[in-house]
Write a structure and sequence with these properties.
By secondary structure, the protein is of the alpha/beta class. It is built from five helices and eight strands, in the order H-E-H-E-E-H-E-H-E-E-E-H-E. It has helices at residues 5-15, 30-34, 71-78, 88-95, 145-154, and strands at 19-23, 45-52, 58-64, 83-85, 115-120, 129-132, 139-144, 159-162. The longest helix has 11 residues, at 5-15. The termini are far apart.
């Protein structure tokens, strides 16, 4: 069963994680998000769903919204094959979300552990929280970085905090 926005909200309550929710119009890219009046714009996260050149390994990368990621340098630093963006079909199949709603919370929909997660170290530094979609691009959930990592790790996701090359 794929977790929708309401299911994510319920799980956040059950786990007792600090969080805030900002409901907003649907956004499909970072430029659209910048037009919203978000309470913590400096903590908004950008998520990149990528795959290796053999279509065997998938990765979700989370960085601050304004940061650009050098995928070649990232792959080299992590010892990975050449990376490119995964397809919308892969996104739906593995994370249960549509383009524009990419989020680490989508990893809760992926039971097989086939997607590795990388969080940029900048999002773990004070104030150490981030804003991500709740598997739907009509809201942003603000939560502590360590809670997100603990939640994903408990779900079986391989998580790493790295310095993301830009």
């Amino acid at each position: 069963m794929m977790l929708d926005k309401q299911a994510i909200y319920q799980l956040l309550q059950q786990k007792g994680y600090w969080h805030e929710i900002t409901e907003h119009a649907a956004v499909f890219d970072m430029a659209s998000l910048a037009d919203l009046n978000l309470p913590y714009p400096d903590q908004d996260a950008k998520n990149l769903f990528v795959r290796d050149d053999k279509h065997r390994h998938y990765y979700l990368l989370t960085v601050k919204g304004e940061k650009r990621v050098d995928l070649k340098a990232f792959a080299r630093a992590q010892g990975l094959r050449r990376l490119s963006f995964a397809s919308a079909a892969d996104l739906q199949r593995l994370l249960g979300v549509q383009p524009g709603a990419v989020t680490p919370l989508g990893l809760l929909n992926e039971p097989g552990g086939t997607v590795d997660y990388y969080l940029d170290v900048e999002l773990t530094e004070p104030p150490a929280f981030l804003g991500v979609h709740p598997n739907d691009n009509t809201a942003t959930v603000w939560l502590k970085s360590q809670d997100l990592l603990a939640w994903l790790t408990d779900h079986g996701v391989k998580c790493q905090v790295v310095t993301m090359p830009s």
